[in-house]
Amino acid sequence: MAPGTDDLVAIGADLEPGTLLAAYRAGYFPMPLGDVDEPDGDIGWWSPQRRGVLELDGLKVSRSLRKTARRFEIRIDTAFAAVVDGCADPARDGAWISEQIRAAYLELHRLGWAHSVEAWAGDELAGGLYGVAVGGVFAGESMFHRHRDASKAALIGLVEHLSAQGGERLIDVQWQTEHLATLGVVEIDRARYLRRLAALLETPPAFW
Question: Which one of 76, 86, 91, 162 has the fewest CB atoms closer than 10 angstroms to its CB?
């Protein structure tokens, strides 16, 4: 599903860590408006009317995907910047990660709030994902792959990691797409998401 007009709730502000964390705790996330190459372009703040979420017990993994995923070694937070750069590759359709977005999330990672889950094939970063963890919610920002199913393997790794920590947890993927729906992502309305978020903010963090 593509962003809708009603999903954009604010324009402006900065990308300082405090601003970003306050936004995630309120159910918002940033994306640049206009050309990602603009160094100081406007930032839009989004809160989808129909939110794409993945319940940990709702992940759908086919037998063939499970077999393929075993080929990769899953690591956490060993190559955060490289994962962001893979997601930001301008050759990808719909590239949206600007330099100011990149810098902001590198700082969030340095402070312990943003995390990457990586799928490695030997010494090669084959794919991965990154996002922000606030309480029991992992707000996924983007994912990429260089090997077939590597990003899906990273998602499986994320679910396994979160499940192992105990407590109620939820993965927020922003918008449901046909691809994500095949993996178990469903839509819930904004009000329901905000209620879930408020309750999950008290869950102990899953990353250190």
Answer: 91
Alpha-carbon distance of 128 to 79, in angstroms, equals 9
Summarize pLDDT for 15-56 with one digit per residue, the tens: 999 999 999 999 999 999 877 666 677 899 999 999 999 999
Cα–Cα dist 71/153, whole Å: 9
Tell me the pTM: 0.93
Which CATH number fits the domain that encloses residue 108? 3.40.630.70
| Domain total in the chain | 1
Residue 124 lies inside a defined structural domain of this protein: yes
**Structure confidence by residue, pLDDT tens digits, 129-161:** 999 999 999 999 999 999 999 999 999 999 999
Query: In sequence order, which residues have a C-beta less than 8 Å from that of residue 62 and are 6 or more positions away?
Result: none
Whole-angstrom Cα distance, residue 19 to residue 161? 27
Which structural domain, as residue segments, surrounds residue 73?
A: 50-200
